[in-house]
Amino acid sequence: MEAVMSFRATSRVSFQAVSSLNNRPKFTSSGMSLPISRTLMVEQKCRIRAQQSDSKDGSATLSTVGDSEGDALKIKEWEVARLQDEIAASQGIRIRRRPPTGPPLHYVGPFEFPLQNEGNTPCNILEEIVWNKDVEVSQRKERRPLSVLKKALENAPPARDFIGALREANLRTGLPGLIAEVKKASPSRGVLRENFDPVEIARAYEKGGAACLSVLTDEKYFQGSFENLEAIRSAGIKCPLLCKEFIIDAWQIYYARSKGADAILLIAAVLPDLDIRYMTQICKMLGLAALVEVHDEREMDRVLGIDGIELIGINNRDLGTFEVDISNTKKLLEGERGEMIRQKDIIVVGESGLFTPADIAYVQQAGVKAVLVGESIVKQSDPTKGITGLFGKDISF
Ligand SMILES: O=C(O)c1ccccc1NCC(=O)[C@H](O)[C@H](O)COP(=O)(O)O
């Protein structure tokens, strides 16, 4: 039986993917620095599940796998997950995809030794969110396999030009284009707005001159939902919509598109380079913009090394510690990085912690052409006036 994993390897590969379950992966004694997209494996698993559910009598593919093949599959999946964490760590990514687990029964192999002393509590809130998201996405995928989701795309409302809307607003007002966030609550601030009507807030933002909207869809930590995204899209709001979600799997991109999103968020602190490459390609295929978010120099350098990135968000909030410092935007746009961004004509979005016209002027001076703002405007009883207050003038003309 054919193996169920796809590997991509570079010339530095010290690991040979094998294509039969009867063979075990072969390792050399050197390190294992090859990029493997975790997405590829998850998608493959999804395909298997889809094949199973597509099969009328349920007997397709895996149901014929005996115990030993099942064990081999578990071991390979586990090893791939370990490799993915190693690759991520080699790119400075501290966030692990899921809690570390012990090896499957009978495992003998290269990962035995580093396993000792590994804790299984998340290292920070972002890792906790990612671990929960991993479980949530697996469950959602069970209910709606990718094959079903792709069909649903035929009925999705067309994708609109998110980046074009930001550029146009920037040219029209001479100020950074506003991505106004529909945000009920957050882990750092708790509930921001008790009386929360997402469509009403979205309308108020549009009236106030927002170029685009960001809609939080995470339920557990932000009290958002995909229903909110769908409701805003079907209410006839013209501003293109960013699906503000913690994306760890390409399936989520298709899901966001099926719910009417025009853009999605990719967080460099969570996603290895190969995932970002792969996911931005999927976005292009679906007509979506990808806002690739960075928080420090290393993440910025990684993202600048990826071809085809058009939109970079600099988050002033450290998603691990919640510390907010708007000088982060300035720091990451100084020197060669800023130069490269201008050469590549990348739009930079200043994100988080923006409350006053002085804050907006500061990040604009640093080089941003757009800003992403939640708390300071969603908390206002009239978010339209909140926007005017934030910019120090009416930007709705
Ligand atoms: O906002 C949080 O507490 C938070 C915690 C963990 C991960 C992400 C988080 N927020 C996402 C964002 O970056 C903001 O929603 C967005 O940039 C708007 O920020 P703000 O204007 O400060 O509400």
Automatic annotation (TrEMBL):
Pfam families hit by this protein: IGPS (PF00218)
Presence of keyword Protease: no
Single Gene Ontology BP annotation: L-tryptophan biosynthetic process
Signal sequence range: none
Enzymatic reactions: 1-(2-carboxyphenylamino)-1-deoxy-D-ribulose 5-phosphate + H(+) = (1S,2R)-1-C-(indol-3-yl)glycerol 3-phosphate + CO2 + H2O
CDD domains found in the cross-reference section: IGPS
GO molecular function terms listed in the Swiss-Prot or TrEMBL record: indole-3-glycerol-phosphate synthase activity; phosphoribosylanthranilate isomerase activity
Entry EC number(s): 4.1.1.48
HAMAP family membership: IGPS_B
Name under which the protein is recorded: indole-3-glycerol-phosphate synthase
Source organism per UniProt: Nyssa sinensis
